[in-house]
Backbone:
């Protein structure tokens, strides 16, 4: 299959997107941009399309797909019931990087929901995503458009790299503004439980109800509520160890690897730390220290970076787990296989 690349900025996009909507309705697959990461879209109401998505990604089929809707009205057609709290969150944060897990109606096939009785609903802001959902006329099932286990794609080229030849088309809408996936929550029991930290900060939700983080995603031992959180994810091309905590000690720990000759080290660090590394070291500079927006934006690019710049071990620098930092550290925890070393001030 030849994968067609379609620019969202081309003059004829309005026409083009109608054709792509038809591709989705016919059971085809289209990669599309969102403000978080690129999605791999298929008709959420078609179990066969869901199977194709799992096959294209190489994803285990017990891992349910997020269903993208154009607005709250479309969500009402898919949810068996919505609570006042869920409706308030939809009104205040949609379109945007918040995904709600709610009881599903039967029109969502078991293939899409991974056999669960719930469905994860998300309403993206990106105009090209909105245009595709409206053109399709059906809700769009859309996991991140990467091969299972690889970092999520934040550009159309990333999608082509992983899924070229396996899907019908990709809409190029430019780099993703946020760069980490949506925050997934459940409002069961009148509380907000974060199943996956993401592009909407925990702090933003605290005004609405008590917020807790699913303990299953923190330890790696318990069963996470979002089935996808149990898989190793975001794996970069070499093992990754992340240092975080006290800034001075973290920096010293990272810089000590520049002296070591036992293997080739690559560095995934702040501007401040990078400036102290010897010239010529393989380094991905991912923003000013503590600048969570630019770090989120460049996180997956950084994890991809070492594909083209091979090293034997990656040494990363973490960030405080507040705001977007919670999502960033969650992804780094998974990318490193729990190799996070916390430096405490003496
Ligand atoms: O930002 C995003 O959310 C992106 C863009 C494309 O919208 N999508 C995305 O989808 O990250 P994906 O499939 O890579 O991650 C979906 C996560 C998985 O961990 C899955 O287990 C969880 O959502 N999930 C989906 N439906 C669920 C449900 N009914 N209950 C619990 N977890 C669910
Ligand atoms: Mg994913």
Residues:
């Amino acid at each position: 299959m030849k994968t067609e690349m379609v620019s969202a900025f081309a003059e004829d996009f309005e026409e083009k997107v109608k054709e792509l909507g038809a591709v989705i309705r016919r059971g085809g697959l289209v990669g599309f941009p969102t403000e978080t990461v690129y999605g791999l879209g298929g008709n959420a109401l078609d179990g066969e399309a869901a199977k194709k998505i799992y096959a294209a990604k190489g994803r285990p089929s017990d891992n349910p797909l997020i269903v993208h809707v154009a607005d709250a009205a479309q969500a009402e057609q898919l949810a068996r019931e919505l609570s006042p709290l869920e409706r308030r969150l939809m009104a205040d944060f949609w379109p945007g990087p918040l995904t709600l897990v709610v009881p599903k109606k039967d029109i969502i096939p078991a293939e899409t929901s991974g056999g669960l009785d719930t469905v994860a609903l998300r309403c993206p802001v990106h105009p090209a995503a909105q245009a595709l959902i409206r053109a399709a006329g059906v809700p769009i099932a859309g996991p991140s458009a990467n091969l299972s286990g690889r970092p999520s794609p934040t550009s159309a080229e990333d999608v082509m790299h992983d899924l070229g030849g396996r899907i019908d088309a990709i809409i190029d809408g430019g780099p993703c503004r946020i760069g980490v996936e949506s925050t997934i929550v459940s409002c069961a029991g009148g509380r907000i439980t974060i199943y996956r930290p993401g592009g909407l900060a925990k702090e933003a939700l605290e005004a609405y109800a008590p917020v807790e983080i699913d303990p299953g995603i923190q330890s790696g031992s318990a069963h996470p509520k979002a089935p996808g959180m149990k898989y190793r994810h975001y794996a970069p091309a070499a093992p990754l160890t992340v240092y975080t905590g006290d800034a001075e000690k973290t920096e010293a720990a990272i810089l000590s690897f520049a002296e070591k000759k036992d293997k080739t080290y690559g560095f995934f660090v702040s501007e401040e730390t990078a400036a102290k590394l010897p010239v010529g070291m393989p380094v991905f500079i991912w923003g000013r220290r503590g600048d969570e927006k630019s770090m989120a934006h460049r996180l997956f690019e950084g994890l991809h970076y070492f594909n083209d710049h091979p090293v034997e071990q990656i040494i990363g620098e973490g960030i405080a787990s507040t705001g977007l930092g919670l999502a960033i550290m969650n992804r780094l925890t998974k990318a490193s296989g729990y190799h996070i070393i916390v430096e405490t001030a003496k």
User: Anything to note?
Assistant: The mean pLDDT is 95. The two ends are 59 Å apart (CA to CA). Residues 83 and 187 are 8 Å apart (CA to CA). The longest strand covers residues 98-103.
